[in-house]
Design goal:
The protein has about 375 residues and is an alpha+beta fold. It folds into 3 domains: about 5-120, Butyryl-Coa Dehydrogenase, subunit A, domain 1 (Orthogonal Bundle), CATH 1.10.540; about 120-230, Butyryl-CoA Dehydrogenase, subunit A, domain 2 (Beta Barrel), CATH 2.40.110.10; about 230-375, Butyryl-CoA Dehydrogenase, subunit A, domain 3 (Up-down Bundle), CATH 1.20.140.10. It contains 12 helices and 10 strands. The chain has a 4-stranded mixed beta sheet. A hairpin with a 2-residue loop joins strand 2 and strand 3 (about 145-160). Helix 9 packs antiparallel against helix 11 (about 350-360). The protein binds flavin-adenine dinucleotide. Flavin-adenine dinucleotide (FAD) binds near residues 131 and 361.
Length: about 375
Amino acid sequence: MDFSFTPEQLMFREAVSHFAKKELEPYVKGMEATDRFPVEVFKKLGDLGYLGVHFPSEWGGADADFISFCIVIEEICYVSAAIGINVLLHSLMASAPIYLVGSDEQKQRYFLPAMRGERIGAAGLTEPNVGSSAGDIETTAQRVDGGWKVRGAKMFTSNGPYCDFLTLVVSTDREKRHKGISLFVVDSATPGVVLGPNIPRMGIAGGEAGSVTLEGPVFPEKSLLGEAGKGFYYLMEALNPTRVALAAGCVGLAQAAFDHALRYAKERKQFGQPIGKFQGVSFKLADMAVEIELARLMVYKAAWLADRKEKLVKEAAMAKLYASEMATRAAHRALQIHGGYGYAKEYPLERYYRDARLFEIFQGTSEILRVIIGGQLGL
Ligand SMILES: Cc1cc2nc3c(=O)[nH]c(=O)nc-3n(C[C@H](O)[C@H](O)[C@H](O)COP(=O)(O)OP(=O)(O)OC[C@H]3O[C@@H](n4cnc5c(N)ncnc54)[C@H](O)[C@@H]3O)c2cc1C
């Protein structure tokens, strides 16, 4: 058993942290003000190989491990959860399935430019009427001359408003439910594919997400990813690492909230002494420190399992469940420690509080994760 990061991973963390603070943090104010994503960020990250460090260098990655990818997401989310989330969904939900089961042509057309940050991907699973119950999706594809005619709509598609390509979850046989689901990868400019505008949200300002309406576009046969009817299986292969990386993002966000709160507790004086000297404050910080440590251990254990190609359904669900609820608690406590200043826009505490809440909802709500963990326990 070895709980330490390797010297390479530690050096890599330093480099990503430096990059995130220097190159990404300056975008945060503008994203809060405009709710727009600075798309040039993808190219900056792609140039450094950060969009897919764990993929082979011949496909635009950096031959590193999945632990390193989680480090990337943790350090980006320390600075901006909105950037971290949209980068993560581009890399793991829109692009990874192409690497996993795509043809060489699909990899050349979508995966390689995605890893270089030259083309931005979005993944469409959620629909207006279907979220958690993925087997019930209503977007359907029917075989026609030259391919598949697709009708339906996707909702809350991160990167959707400005994406270059879409990895879409579509039913090619509704009667078979999960076994009738297929994945398609298509250019977003395909006639009949309509990208909706950004949907205003509580937090994650600038992490744009919109609808995608499919008004009967015909997707050519070569846009099918892998085999028809196996899409649900491919989706699960992508979802487990996504949950682990999202949990890493929660650790980054919680660490940022904690660092602010610890500093403030040492500086702010009331009743003639630093507020951190009051047990009511120091216990909050102690609890935060314990929970961040625990979540980080869970994240990197699950990432380690992913690197060993071991089963990680339960560990991925546990890491995301615990880390997301922990991040909400950490943001709540850190805001409380800042008093009125925590509620003021001048400080990032209220942003952490709004942003943390999303992690409990998407890519598996806390309730669905408990259902999965229960299932893994044989219930
Ligand atoms: C900012 C943002 C970005 C997103 N990005 C993407 C994206 O890029 N791609 C994408 O496909 N989706 C995306 N989503 C969608 C997200 O994954 C879904 O919102 C999420 O999966 C939940 O689905 P839903 O909203 O339809 O809720 P529902 O499934 O309708 O659930 C509503 C409530 O019922 C509960 N519930 C449902 N079933 C059960 C059950 N069996 N047991 C107990 N409770 C249950 C849920 O936990 C929840 O509390 C995004 C969402 C947001 C807000």
